[in-house]
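The instructor's notes for this session suggest beginning with a concrete chain rather than abstract definitions. Hand out the sequence below and ask the class to guess, before any prediction is shown, which regions might be ordered.
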Amino acid sequence: MGNLMVSLKKFVSNKNTVTILGVLLGIVVLYFGYTWRVNQSTSPVDVPYAVNTMLAQQRITEQDIGIVSVPSELVSNWKNIILDSNYLTNAKLVSFDSKIAANSFFFAENIIEESKMPDSVFSNIKDGYTIYALDVNSKKTYSNSIFPGDMIDLYLKTTDEDLLVYGRFIKSIEVIAVKDSQGRNVFEDKDNLKEPAQLLFAVPEDLFLLLKKVENIEGDFDIDPVPRNDSYTKNAAATELVNAELESFVRVKTYILQDECTDLTACG
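After discussion, reveal the predicted structure:
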């Protein structure tokens, strides 16, 4: 027994033995590490997909969703893919500017909460604000480049003694919806965009009256919607009249009622 222990100690203390054991241990660690990584990347994960093609504004139900198992590595780099089918059926719709093809996965940018759909915001108009519909066409919307949620400005064009008058009229107006002549959302099918007929937005009551006057005055008055950049939308300012001189061009051509609302406080 003693001789066996002495031999074992000599074997363990031998430098070559230590090197061999170290190499073997490294191989074992690498093997199990590799096996773990392979199992992690190939282990299946359940992913919901669209059973049928779904158009903009369509509510997502359980009948619209199928489940397929795919290797987790396949979806690991898709940070915006939706893996929870319960999330999809919780008052979610296909976004107003999206279409989900049959057998496609669901991605966050194609899904919107029902309360955030363009037509839904009509019920959340601020106190003292009124819906105004501006007649437009494809040219005025920059070939369908103005979307619901964008903050835009309105420019007014008229003439004064044969001279052109043109300038920014009202700033920072949020577009609620873009409709065609049938009242349908222009972007409900992004592959078949409709011809825009109206931009809908909400403005304070005094600005609503001013815009309606422009709309009904006989003569050369025209309103142009002007889109801005993403920063303008993300850092939206208050909706305000920005040119008193243009306002006067409108007011001198209209009768001012005694109880007419002239500011947001009075309108509230």
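Then share the key points. The longest strand covers residues 163-179. The first helix runs from residue 2 to 13.
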